[in-house]
């Protein structure tokens, strides 16, 4: 399950935090994609990977560069391929959030609630506690509590 941080001060010093998912994807993650990326690209953006750096767009069925993926899709791929880093969730729409929340591992940050309706369980971390939450309303409340 993913681990969620809601305060930047709670991010461990030994973990890298990435705010600009688009840039990180284009510079780092795009070059290490494998077959796992194909399902995510199709699920989030409705596109099909047709080469190392090419996708078939769902719009007009044209071939475009992989850097044209949505920011939400890039964020989901960043999290999948870099589980040792923490990525900002703010550019994710519901379709990308559903994928991210289904991951077995990964680290994310947002200072406000970003929760898909169809969530299972996540690990939440603050300076004072670590807790597994598997209820939408409870997670929403956790995000709303000031510490």
Topology:
Layout: E1 3-5, E2 17-18, H1 21-27, H2 36-45, E3 48-51, E4 54-56, E5 63-65, H3 71-81, E6 86-88, H4 94-101, E7 107-109, E8 122-125, E9 130-133, H5 136-144
Parallel strand pairs: 1-7, 1-8, 2-6, 6-7
Antiparallel strand pairs: 3-4, 4-5, 8-9
Give an overview of the whole structure:
The mean pLDDT is 92. This protein has helices at 21-27, 36-45, 71-81, 94-101, 136-144; strands at residues 3-5, 17-18, 48-51, 54-56, 63-65, 86-88, 107-109, 122-125, 130-133. Helix 3 runs parallel beside helix 4 (94-101). It contains five helices and nine strands. The chain has a six-stranded mixed sheet with strand order 2-6-7-1-8-9, covered by helices on one side. The protein is globular. The protein is of the alpha/beta class and 147 residues long.
What is this structure, in a nutshell?
This protein is an alpha/beta fold and 147 residues long.
Main traits of this protein?
147 residues; 5 helices; alpha/beta; 9 strands; single chain; globular; three-stranded antiparallel sheet; six-stranded mixed sheet; 31% helix
């Amino acid at each position: 399950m993913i681990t969620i941080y809601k305060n930047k001060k709670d991010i461990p010093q030994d973990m890298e935090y990435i705010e600009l998912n688009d840039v990180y994807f284009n510079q780092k993650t795009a070059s290490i994609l494998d077959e796992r990326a194909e399902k995510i690209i199709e699920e989030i953006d409705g596109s099909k990977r047709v080469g190392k750096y090419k996708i078939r767009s769902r719009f007009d069925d044209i071939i475009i560069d992989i850097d044209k993926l949505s920011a939400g899709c890039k964020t989901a791929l960043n999290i999948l391929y870099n589980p040792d880093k923490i990525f900002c969730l703010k550019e994710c729409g519901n379709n990308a959030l559903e994928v991210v929340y289904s991951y077995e591992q990964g680290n994310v940050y947002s200072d406000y609630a970003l929760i898909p309706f169809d969530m299972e369980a996540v690990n939440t971390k603050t300076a004072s506690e670590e807790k597994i939450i598997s209820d939408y309303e409870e997670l929403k409340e956790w995000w709303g509590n000031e510490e």
